[in-house]
Amino acid sequence: MSKSILHKADTRGHANHGWLDSKHTFSFANYYNPERMHFGVLRVLNDDQVAPGMGFGTHPHENMEIISIPLEGDLEHKDSMGNIAVIRHGDIQVLSAGTGITHSEYNKNKDKEVKFLQIWIFPNKQNVTPRYSQISLKIEDRHNNFQQIISPNSDDDGAWINQNAWFSMGNFDSEFETTYNLKSSQNGVYIFVLEGEIEVNGQILSKRDGLGIWDIENFNMKALSNCDVLLMDVPMDLAY
After folding, report:
1. What are the CA-CA distances from residue 240 to residues 2, 123, 177, 235 (Å)?
2. Angle 100-105-109 (CA atoms, 0-180°, nearest 5)?
3. pLDDT tens across 67-111, in order?
4. CB count, 10 Å around CB of 217?
5. 37: which residues sit within 8 A by CB, 6+ positions away?
6. Which of 91, 143, 175, 204 is found 20 to 30 A from 59 (Cα to Cα)?
7. Which domains does the chain have, with CATH numbers?
8. Does the reported pTM lie above 0.85?
9. pLDDT by residue (tens digit) across 143-183?
C-alpha cells in the first residue's frame, strides 16, 4: 500500500532577512517542525530569492550533497577549493561537501533578483574528498519529458552525487499525461511543482506544493495547466 505526505506551499517555513526571502519545505535554521525533518535522504528544500548584489557570505559544510538549481537570474559561487563560477537557469550545481568545504553565494547582478532552489541530500558515504561540479542542460529537452538532472552515476545523464538518487525536471503542456517509474524499490519520490498545476494519483498540486510518495513502483501525472515540475527520487532509508 503506497504512502504519501502533502506539503502545501503556504505551510512551509518562511524567513525574510530583507536581502534573502526563503521558504523552507523542511526544518532549517530558525524554522523547526518535528514533523518536517526530511523525506528519506532529502534533508533540505529551500526556495530562495536573493536581492540584487546580495548573498550568503563564506560558510562551512561537511558530509552533505548540496544541489543548487537556478530558476531566474545569475548566482555567483566561490569556494575553498578555488572554484569561482556563475550558475544560471538551465545549469545544475553540485557540491559534495565531504570532509569539509567553505563557500559563498552571491547574486551576480545589481539590478535584479536571483531565484534558486538549494537542496541538501544526506550522502551514502562519509568523509569523501570534497568535489564541485557544474553542468548546463538544454531546457528544451524537458518539454513534455522528465529530463534527468542528477544521478548516482558519473557516466549517466546530468550531474552525479554520492547517493542512490535521481532528480528530473519537466516542462509540460496543459492536459499532457505521463507515468513515472521509480528507479529503486528502496526509494520514494518527492514531487515539487515549480509552476502551474498538476494531478498526481488524484491529488491536485499547485505552484510550490510538494508531495512525497513511497512504497510505490510508479505514479501517473497529468498537467492541469502548463507547468514545471521537479522530481526527487531518493532512498527512504538514512543508513550509510
Report:
1. 24, 8, 36, 11
2. 165
3. 999 999 999 999 999 999 999 999 999 999 999 999 999 999 999
4. 8
5. 26, 27, 43
6. 91
7. 3-235 (2.60.120.10)
8. yes
9. 999 999 999 998 888 999 999 999 999 999 999 999 999 99
